[in-house]
Amino acid sequence: MFAVASVKGSPGVTTTVMALAASWPADADGGVRPVVVEADTAGGDLAARLGLAHVPGLLDVAAAARRPRPGSVLGAAQELPFGVRAVLAPAGAGQCREAVRLLGADAGRVLRGGPDDVGTVLVDVGRVETLDQGLAGVADGLVLVTRGGVDALAHLFPHRELAALTRRVVVAVVGPCAYGPAEIAAVSGAHQVVRVPWTPASAAVLCGTSAKRLRASGWRRSPLLAAAERLAGHLLHAAPSPRQAPDAPARAANEAEPASSAASAANEHASVLATEVASA
Ligand SMILES: Nc1ncnc2c1ncn2[C@@H]1O[C@H](COP(=O)(O)OP(=O)(O)O)[C@@H](O)[C@H]1O
Ligand SMILES: [Mg+2]
Predict the structure, then answer these.
(1) Structure confidence at residue 273 (pLDDT)
(2) pTM for the whole thing?
């Protein structure tokens, strides 16, 4: 189970989760497609965007949470037009907050389902400020979505402790960014950094405002899906966590280049962003 959240002022979580699910490697999880769960306390986006009912959905999962055997979240999942399945949430923040509260500390157990449930659960938690610490602790990884400006990146700094709490933290930088992955990793404490391109045409498909199909393979494939596939790769092929291997080499900071080699070269540059963030 992986959680995806944005840092302050950086939209793009739902789109990134959709791209992640749409590009999830076919050979992962024995070919079982992931299921997305909208658990954003600010309210769901997908039902309204795609013209779908939010029932069955998050409210049913939350209602079942108190049962000893809540069952699979798949029972509450719907098929979205671009081949993704998702548990949808109502648009109302009040209902969503209550559903997430009901899931509470049990969210990990409930969302993962029973022993027969295989496949990855991708949880759209909206803003990282509302991320339940219990969920962060049981997730196999966390994606922090941010824009690439120094103001947005500065908001990563207070969340550095998540890298110790969560086995794997990947920062997804949406859109233009003047900083290198090693600099961002140094400031955020993330294990990996992935650049996600700003591609309105692809995002429109995942938002339901375009009926085009996104190419997932071939030389004309969507750059958004290609980036999401790299993101999935980082989540699936996690290096040993700092808790398991405190003396492990420095964290990977560049998707193409392990940080152990990138770190020394980047140290100089990282201090530039760290200084800017510290004084921001
Ligand atoms: N990578 C992207 N390229 C282009 N537009 C994007 C991208 N990511 C998000 N958007 C657009 O930004 C808006 C908010 O995105 P969304 O993913 O719903 O953010 P959030 O879930 O964080 O509120 C949507 O209109 C979406 O199409
Ligand atoms: Mg959203």
Answers:
(1) 60
(2) 0.87
Residue with the larger pLDDT of the pair 118 and 36: 36
> Going by C-beta distance under 8 Å and a sequence separation of 6 or more, which residues neighbour residue 46?
14, 38, 52, 80, 86, 88, 89
- Give Cα 134 distance to the centre of its chain: 16
Instruction: Please tell me the distance between residue 258's alpha carbon and the centre of ligand 2 in angstroms.
Output: 31
- For strands 78-79 and 85-87, give the pairing: antiparallel
Contact 231, 196 (CB under 8 A): yes
Which of 13, 14, 15, 225 has most ligand 1 atoms within 8 Å of its beta carbon, as the pocket-test mutant?
15
Task: Give the residues surrounding ligand 1 with Cβ less than 6 Å away.
Answer: 6, 11-15, 45, 174, 196, 198-200, 203, 207, 224
Q: How many Å separate Cα 217 from the centre of its chain?
A: 22
What is 2-279's CATH number? 3.40.50.300
* Domain ranges across the chain: 2-279
Spacing, Cα 200 to ligand 1 middle (Å): 8
> How many whole angstroms separate alpha carbon 96 and alpha carbon 90?
7
* Alpha carbon distance 58, 86 (integer Å): 10
Chain mean position to CA 241: 18
pLDDT in tens, 45-78: 999 999 999 999 999 999 998 888 888 899 999 9
Which amino acid is residue 215, in one-letter code?
R
pLDDT at 258 over 70: no
Segment 151-161 shows an average pLDDT of 93
Judge whether residue 109 has pLDDT over 80.
yes
At 274 the pLDDT is: 56
DSSP, collapsed to helix, strand or coil, labels residue 55 as: coil
Centre of ligand 1 to C-alpha 195, Å, is 14
Residue 13: its pLDDT value, please?
A: 96
